Amino acid sequence: MKTLTQEYIKTLLPHRADNSHKLTFGHVLNIAGSINYRGAAYLSSIAALRVGAGYVTLASSPGVCQSVCALTPNIVMHPLLTRPIIYAEINPNIVESISIELQSIDTESIDEKAVMQLSVQLQQATVITVGSGLSIAQSKDQFNNPINSQHGMAVAEGNHGFFFALLTTLQTCTQTVIFDADALNFISHLLHKSAGLHQPALTLPNHSIITPHPKELARLLNIDVHDIQADRTHYAIIAAKQLHSIVVLKGKDSVITDGEYTFINPTGNSALAKAGSGDVLTGIIGGFCAQGLSPLNAACLGVYLHGLSGDLAAEELTQYGVLANDLIHFIPKAIKSLLQQ
Ligand SMILES: NC(=O)C1=CN([C@@H]2O[C@H](COP(=O)(O)OP(=O)(O)OC[C@H]3O[C@@H](n4cnc5c(N)ncnc54)[C@H](OP(=O)(O)O)[C@@H]3O)[C@@H](O)[C@H]2O)[C@@H](O)CC1
Ligand SMILES: Nc1ncnc2c1ncn2[C@@H]1O[C@H](COP(=O)(O)OP(=O)(O)O)[C@@H](O)[C@H]1O
């Protein structure tokens, strides 16, 4: 186990060829965001561009694409097919309770057929990032039956169908795939809730990176989050071996491991404990993968630089005042400070 150093991290920064064009620096396909989490789609996409990726396509529901487009002209949009919420036998006596239910349902669930819409992008992308703010629409710890019989209506089942179809397609991808946030929660569901249903064991694509926070890793390993926190390195290594992927276990002293080599990140501070900073990290790692780094090197460089951006941001804005969006502006300063070393 090694602690990452600035000298080592500097050697990982990808070279910028003079004779280059946008695709020299790779294409990130970012499948992210949902009606309640539009910010996650923005933050993860723009962070990839900020670390040097040449091209980022955001694939999401039309509403998310529209919102992100209003925030920035820098991201290419790929709006996906959605499916309407289907109501059955609505009982007028329970209209009030239905409207309460609807507030917690993503009204722009992505249709599973949208995976076909992505076939060209999935081939063209250098790296695929999935899950930041993708929303599973229902309680993460209790995936409900989509038929809410109490209210006599069939409700949309969030993005489950889409994600399942996507995961099947991704199995054959040769590029690095980074799974974050709700993608991890969905994978946990497939691993544990479907156990005993005689389904084939879940495998992730060959070059996967997963970026769980402790609770997400607890869900993946089906153990208590306190156990994870008591021995973070041990459980990160177990997950890397079980899922045959690079694991980034987030939090103070983030752990990066492929199951054999393990690194601890020394950068970062409590300024990063703010909603959305994990989405920025996913974009950063994706951006470095796009520029040709191996998944393990991209994860090490990404986590270190993300923390350094938080350190520089806190120097100027205090650990209280930094927003996830501020990190985006401090990424170039963090790269500059690495280059000046
Ligand atoms: N602007 C946007 O659009 C944003 C969008 N976002 C998107 O939202 C989606 C849901 O993400 P989320 O983090 O809100 O839900 P989730 O991971 O299930 O956490 C729920 C519970 O887990 C725990 N927990 C969390 N962190 C922990 C830790 N470090 N260590 C230990 N435990 C931890 C904690 O449980 P507790 O400890 O309270 O029991 C918490 O209540 C996701 O797709 C993300 O990308 C966000 O990034 C925000 C900004
Ligand atoms: N106290 C802390 N010190 C260092 N890094 C932190 C701290 N708190 C959070 N972070 C980092 O901030 C990010 C938070 O990600 P995550 O928990 O997924 O949040 P969100 O889902 O809101 O984006 C991770 O990269 C984590 O390592």
What does this structure look like?
(6S)-NADPHX binds at residues 40, 133, 213, 279. The protein has 341 residues and is α/β, with parallel strands linked by helices. The protein has one domain: Ribokinase (UDP-N-acetylmuramoyl-L-alanine:D-glutamate ligase, 3-Layer(aba) Sandwich), CATH 3.40.1190. It contains 14 helices and twelve strands. It has helices at residues 6-12, 38-50, 62-71, 95-103, 114-117, 119-124, 160-170, 181-193, 214-221, 225-230, 232-243, 277-290, 295-321, 324-340, and strands at 2-3, 27-31, 55-60, 76-79, 127-130, 147-148, 153-154, 176-179, 208-210, 246-249, 255-257, 262-264. Helix 1 crosses helix 13 (295-321) and helix 2 packs parallel to helix 14. It is globular, with a radius of gyration of 20 Å. Ligand NPW is lined by residues 37-40, 132-134, 140, 181-182, 213-216, 225, 251, 275-276, 278-279.
Q: At the first level of CATH, what is the class?
A: Alpha Beta
User: Taking all residues together, what is the mean pLDDT?
Assistant: 89
**Helix content estimate:** 40-55%
> Strand sequence of the main sheet, in spatial order?
1-12-11-10-9-8-5-2-3-4
Q: What is the CATH superfamily classification?
A: Ribokinase
Small molecules in complex: ligand NPW, adenosine-5'-diphosphate
Helix and strand run: EHEHEHEHHHEEEHEHEHHHEEEHHH
* Named CATH architecture: 3-Layer(aba) Sandwich
Overall strand count? 12
How far apart, in Å, are the first and last alpha carbons? 24 Å
The parts where pLDDT drops under 50 for at least 5 residues are: 99-104, 138-156
Q: Could you give a short account of the major beta sheet? A: 10 strands, mixed
How many domains would you count in the coordinates?
A: 1
User: Shape, please?
Assistant: globular
Q: What name does CATH use for the topology?
A: UDP-N-acetylmuramoyl-L-alanine:D-glutamate ligase
Q: Round the Cα radius of gyration to an integer and report it.
A: 20 Å
In what range is the share of β-strand residues? 5-15%
Which structural class is indicated by helix and strand composition? alpha/beta
Count helical runs. 14
